[in-house]
Amino acid sequence: MQTILEVTGLRVSRGSTEILRGIDWRVSRGQHWVILGPNGCGKTSLLKSLIGYLAPSAGDIALLGHRFGDTDWRELRLHIGITTSALQAAIPPAETALETVISGRYAQLDLWVKPTPADLAAAKRLLRLVGASAIAGREWAYLSQGERQRILIARSLIARPRLLILDEPCAGLDPVAREEFLRLIDALAARRGGPSLVLVTHHVEEITPRFSHVLILRAGRALASGPRRRVLTSANLSAAFGARVKLARAGKSLRLRF
What we know:
Layout: E1 3-14, E2 17-28, E3 33-36, H1 43-50, E4 58-63, E5 66-67, H2 73-76, E6 80-84, H3 97-103, H4 117-129, H5 145-157, E7 163-167, H6 175-190, E8 196-201, E9 213-218, E10 221-227, H7 228-231, H8 234-241, E11 246-250, E12 253-257
Parallel strand pairs: 3-8, 3-9, 6-7, 7-8
Antiparallel strand pairs: 1-2, 1-4, 4-5, 9-10, 11-12
Helix pairs in contact: 3-4, 3-5, 4-5
């Protein structure tokens, strides 16, 4: 299988503080991963390292066969889509949903170029894909949290990334909006030829059936990594969260019992 992303011996230190220690991780084409762990376990720092915003102290990161430090990461970053609430504050309140989607093609926040007919067609197609055609002309300031997350996914997809990172995408969603959004994520994972997905969360309830692999972090280290059936266990989750928990399954849904 083609390797999309490979992390080897990754260590990130700042001063005397070790943020990440000895992370080994590989994402292959067709795999969909969950990064799971408690607050402060290193999830955000790992993401920042992957997209070039936090330089490693040791180890290697390779994307599509290109190593960090040997290649212009600004170019490689175009092959990674990321949906994160951190982007929301940087989007102009008066920008329409359609313009926000198009801005992803140019890696811009606050679109200033004139969209081409191809840009408009691609953005409208992606708005249909994420179920947001009806709000194409609505300004960012008047979109709900769930609508904003859908628009950010469409924005990420317009650059046709090989890897799509979903950084706690359900934060702030009400239960109904969360369920609808998780169905969208599962549909994206099922698309043939689509990007590999990486879902970052600390809620097992957000792990939909299409996610095939899990990386569990604890205190900056990889506690377990690999196929979901082997890694997502009560014992591993108890060790990660520092409490005795039991992973329960109800149909296709997961939850933790304490």
